[in-house]
Each structure stands twice: as C-alpha cells, then as structure tokens.
C-alpha cells in the first residue's frame, strides 16, 4: 500500500484564518492527541494470543509504544530474539489491525483539552497530522472524536519510506500540503522518533512530556518547547509564532 494523505473535511470555517497564515503544526497522534496505549496493548495481546505467539509482557509493550515505531517494527521489537518469519509478522500485522478497528478502538481516549486546543490552534496555523500509525485508524479516530474539522491533512504509516524520524518525510509533507515552510513548521510529539525527525529535518520541536516517550531518550535528543498538558498547546504555538514575527496573527490580550 502506498503512503496516503487524506484531506479532512473543514466545517465552520475554522481553517480559513489558518490558510492565510504560514505557520504549520506537524502534530503527532498517539500519545500526543489521543491516549491510545490501552487500545494498542489490547490489540497486540489479542493478536499474539490468537495466532499462537507468546504474548509479550506489559512492560515490553509499554517500551515499544513509547518508541514511536511502526506496527511491524513494534511486532519485531516485542520478540527481538525470536525466529518469527516474515509471513508470521504479516499475519500478526493484519490481525492487529482487524482487532484494533473492531474492538481495540473503544479503549481510545482523548487527552484533556484536545478539542479546544486543536480548535484554537487551527485559527492560527494549519494542522497536519504526521504519524507512524495506520492511516485508517487515525481517520476513524478523527471522525469519531469530531476532530477532522481542524485538520488540513494526515500523513500516516505505509510503505515506501520515509517515515519518522527520516528527514525526507518533510519533503513529502511539502509535496502533499502546499505552502508548508521549514522555518514556519513546529513538530509536536511525545516520542524520540518525533524529536529526532524534527532535529534531522531542521525543524522546531515541542515535546509532549505527558505522552508515552522515554524521558531520558527524549531529553537526550532535545527540544525547543516542553508541553506539559495538551490544552497549553495554543499558548506554545503563539509564543513560537511570535518568535518568528507573527504576533499580528493573534489578537491582543
């Protein structure tokens, strides 16, 4: 399957202001907008169990989730010393996606303040979801939580490369979303993969410390802003944009 981009519907004119602005939020999904760890853990455990593969312990699953890997990389990391064949990995991949879309999604919960934060940010910047998660799952979640109205596009998992933390992913963003500028883009995510992508691509970064990333690894990579809770994202966006001379895009307070 080729990498896909979906353009989400715009309702209520939320993005009309953003379209005249040059700022872009490259926003992660799992662990940044949505608390998906329980859904991921349920789906992984179910897939491994049903296909007769040893179910990884919860701590190993937690570490894998916090690494920001793609699904197949996650499956491989959960049994690094095993002799899982390519066919077994593909079967686990397919079954995981079936379980997630059928039952696992019910364990997804938005982080507090998610809708209000995205609504406010969309008034001042275009929002692009940039994730190593599957496109179908993200699209379903955006519809379920009515967040698609604030999002300009979604770039999600799918071969061929690039994917986070590959710097070439930003070139694809620019190809898919006209008007995105390197000096006007802020990466927001919770894992080492997000922060490494920002550093590799020469982009500003914001670490969602409340998410699933490994504390020491994320701090070792470095970041420009620290987001302690999602409802503070509009304030960070305003400060970051102001540093680049766009104070006029915001009303005086």
Overview features:
seven-stranded mixed β-sheet; 42% helix; single chain; disordered N terminus; 9 strands; two-stranded antiparallel ribbon; alpha/beta; 253 residues
Compact description:
With 253 residues, this protein is an alpha/beta fold. It has helices spanning 16-19, 37-50, 58-65, 71-78, 86-102, 114-122, 135-144, 168-176, 192-201, 215-221, 233-243; strands at 5-6, 24-27, 34-35, 109-110, 126-134, 153-157, 185-189, 204-208, 225-227. α9 (192-201) links the parallel β7 (185-189) and β8 (204-208).
Secondary structure layout plus pairing:
Layout: E1 5-6, H1 16-19, E2 24-27, E3 34-35, H2 37-50, H3 58-65, H4 71-78, H5 86-102, E4 109-110, H6 114-122, E5 126-134, H7 135-144, E6 153-157, H8 168-176, E7 185-189, H9 192-201, E8 204-208, H10 215-221, E9 225-227, H11 233-243
Parallel strand pairs: 2-5, 2-7, 5-6, 7-8, 8-9
Antiparallel strand pairs: 1-6, 3-4
Helix pairs in contact: 2-3, 2-5, 4-5
